[in-house]
Specification:
Strand 7 and strand 8 (164-171) form a beta hairpin. By secondary structure, the protein is mainly beta. An 8-stranded antiparallel barrel has the order 1-2-3-4-5-6-7-8. It has one helix at 118-124; strands at residues 20-28, 36-49, 54-68, 72-88, 96-115, 134-146, 151-159, 164-171. The chain is elongated and about 70 Å long.
């Protein structure tokens, strides 16, 4: 195909309908976190084009936190599983892909306690139980800068798996 000056083609876009991306990275801050973070959200996500500018995919993340209440230290782990979709709105830019989207997921939260002394454990050990798993809604805006035909740096801000996320993305096809 011959490109005419001033005329852009579909190949000029960073994102195409049949593209599939695998991304991995780290998040900063997280909704529903108990105590202080001990491990920021580490995520892996996948997306594939289902229409000209629409993608669907999923995200899996792992995170940790702890809280010291004096009588004992609670440790929490978070395993996030979610589905998400995005709209890719930039055209005629072969290096940058900008998108916005939403998702729905489930955060599996588990907790354990380490007692500060045996008296607390014998007194309260059988009565404390924690279950705090929950559904969450994710909304985000992001972008990818392709520094090669397959590899990109990725950044997102939103409300879900980290208030900000950075990572790398690999185009599978």
């Amino acid at each position: 195909m011959v490109a005419l000056p001033g005329v852009a083609s579909a190949q000029d876009n960073a994102w195409h309908q049949k593209d599939m991306n695998l991304s991995a990275g780290v998040g900063f801050g997280m909704y529903g976190l108990y105590g202080s973070s001990t491990l920021p959200p580490i995520f892996v996500s996948f997306e594939t084009g289902v229409a000209e500018k629409i993608t669907l995919g999923g995200i899996v993340a792992y995170s940790g936190s702890s809280d010291d209440f004096g009588y004992g230290k609670w440790k929490y782990t978070y395993i996030v599983i979610g589905a998400r979709g995005a709209y890719h709105f930039l055209e005629h830019n072969p290096k940058f892909d900008a998108y916005a989207g939403a998702g729905l997921g489930y955060d599996i939260v588990s907790a354990s306690v380490t007692w500060n002394n045996g008296a607390y454990q014998s007194l309260y050990g059988n009565f404390y139980s924690a279950s705090a798993s929950y559904f969450f809604f994710d909304v985000f805006v992001g972008g990818r800068w392709y520094f090669s035909p397959k590899w990109a740096l990725q950044g997102e801000v939103g409300y879900g798996v980290g208030f900000a996320r950075i990572g790398v993305s690999y185009k599978l096809n």
